[in-house]
Amino acid sequence: MTDQTRAILRAALTAAFLLLGGLSLLVSVLFGVSQPAALPEARAEGTNGQSLAVCSIEDLPGLSTVRYVNYTPDEFLQPHSLAGGEVLDLTTSPVLSGRGTLQFVFLNLDPFDERFNEKSEALSPYLGGDSYWHFTLCLPPFSGAVNVYIRASYETSSGEIAGYDFVNYSEYVGKTEEHRTVSEPLLLDLTFYSQRHIMSPDLSIRATTVTIHFEAGEGEHAMFLSRPLVGTDEEVRSAVGRDRYLELALTLVAAITLAAFLFATLLKRTAAFLPQTVLVGAIFGIALLRFLLTGSCLFPRAALVLIRVLSALFPAAAAFSLRERIRKFPLFVLFALLCLLPAVLIPLSPPFAAAASSAELILRAVVLCLPLALIVLAVLRGRSPKVFPAPCLALVLAVSELLPAAPLRFLSPGFWLSALTLAAVAALGSLFFWRIEAENRYLTADLQLEVDRRTHELRAMIDDRDKLLRYLSHDLKKPVTRIGQAALALEGTEPDPVRKGTLREIADKAEGIRAGLTDLQHYARENYAEEASCALDLAPLLREIRSSLSPDCEANGILLNVVPAAVTVYAKPKMLISVLHNLVFNAIEHAECSCIEITAERTPKACRIRVIDDGKGIETGEDVFRPYYSEHPARENMGLGLYLCRQFLRSMGGDLTYERASKRTVFTATLPRSPRHGPLPH
Asked: pTM score, two decimals?
């Protein structure tokens, strides 16, 4: 890659990164604009003379959020008490005390308002058959237990407050003894009387109050997990349902994508997909926990902590995916570990503490600079463009998690950035996987060509060797035989004992060479290397050997006893017959025996074929399988038969051993057993 190309790529990647950041900011602004508007702030004087936050029925049509709530800590007020007190701004995610009272106040139309008829007509679409205007208030999940009242009547509960007697606050009869946290959204029907002639401007008659008695778990603080929604029943239920269904869809897509990456990682046994897997896993965990929080959740605090911990994995995945090093030092590992610092500190921080939340926000903002620095370093080093999309998306996603929580998840930038990241990571992962598969197919095809070429060369070498063996065994056999015969002839006419012994030694050596050449000739003629192994029934083969060798044994006054066994082995038939023939003929020619026995024995994984004779045997200290070994010292180890027999058996996955026991010579051929008939699988 030329310097000019690198410069162009750097400029393009920098522009792409800035564009991505700008688009993310634009998305955040657009979604922020499209969020439901907050109800206008209004105040009234409470029954205790203090300021009371109120909302007007005129602002309820459509879909809005409730921003302000009246708060009384450490005390359960009587429902519909309308006592003023501290007013909380819910956009700041305030942390509440262990127990207390929250109160939303919605005012009906003022019957003495000159525009009453005009306003009443505007509210006519929401008028029910009971002469009441109806609107719906959705209380978001609450980290604790709540009892809810509308006006002075008990409406619903989520969880249980310890030692709470409902009779003290309403006509409802009931009592809860122990605290139990359940976090779930609650939908409430707000009703306002529409007949002007019986309305009153008095606050206690005009107001529809929603009173919430709450209690947090031991050692915890209570808080709303989002802002309340209010509006028409259709719009509120549609928004809440859409939020839950889209969160479920994101969870399912993330789960499928995560399963695909895990499968690819395990299938390929590679860590190449690890950053993408961590990124998708974090998205899946956050989506699943948010989905659980929109339903009935028994562990809201733990879910919120886990969401914050998982969101800390985004910058760590961005840093790890770049794999930047300074010389040999893995800088990306250090940065990834530093990015995980918030994930370690978050569970240790006090729950819902304002100071801890601020410190966490600052720490996470600082941590975001680490993967950003690695991205800039990678751009300056001219890294390949394919490494940038995943870390850039992870970084933008981490930024989105620092933005204020939206009352509706599907209108938050984090939700759609998560969906965009899933799609991008899945697409990039698929392309990467396809590229790996293409490379593997290319390497496999190239390897197959190389194997074919080497096989052809090996076959050519084997053919050349066989030709050489045939030449040595055929063309040299005749002169060696003539040398032996000439030495024997001279021995008969030589009177000098010393020369006579020398001629005998020459004759013996010539005979040894002739025997070795005979073995080579037999090996070259049969070409056992070309024979394929197969599942072979041993009993018929041993019976065939008995039939073919019995005449030779009888001619030498030897009894041949064959004991077949019902066992199947993996072997080359011709090669195995040659081995057994060789062992029997060795016993006939050299052992000076009177009985030869062939037996077969099964073991769990192998079969042992023994050739036993009662001849003079060989000393156990001798290596009878050494090339050119012979029991006759005068021949100076010129035998090849036993060496070739052992090599043949080892080429079939077996072995050949020798022992002398109870004045009997035992050669044991071991072969692998076969559970079925058929060719040996490749």
From this structure: 0.61
